[in-house]
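Troubleshooting log. The previous structure file for this entry was overwritten by mistake, so regenerating from the original sequence record. Sequence copied from the archived sheet and checked twice against the printout by T.R.
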Amino acid sequence: MILPIVAYGDPVLKKKAKDITKDYPKFSELLENMFETMYNAQGVGLAAPQIGLPIRVFIVDTEPFADDDELTEEESSQLKDFRKVFINATILEETGDEWAFTEGCLSIPDIREDVFRNETIKIKYLDENFVEHTETYDGLAARVIQHEYDHIEGVLFTDKLSSLKKRLIKGKLANISKGKISADYRMRFPLAKKVR
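Regenerated output below.
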């Protein structure tokens, strides 16, 4: 089932999410819905807070990045098959040079800005079967994970922008929270006036 994506301004996007246990109700159904919602919105990642759930769960599928002409063949093949579920994740370390990449977010449609992030991360998480992993990622895979991880920490990519950039997009962000935007997917706006 395709779920509405929570728009910028909803308090759930600013909350630090809570860990879950393997007896979380209808968990496999939730994951199916999250993947369906993400693909419908043409996203490469989706975190549970973006569908209104303050839990430490996010998904990624970087296949859309695999066709980038600037990637090596090895990078391209890594991204093509990178579809993962992260539960109760903790980033243990972020290393390497910071590099800029233009990011967007399904909760913040029509705003794209350069964000600096570390090149490499080491992350501990549970997979969809609640098996623990500690893995290292770099490049675009690391960036997508960092972006989604921020969501479960209550951080948005716009929080990482300079104060000048934040001032420049302030009006656009206010319009998003009021529902004064059109997206190609279902959204839930926190400050939109209810039509009676």
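The first helix runs from residue 27 to 40. Archived copy saved in two places this time.
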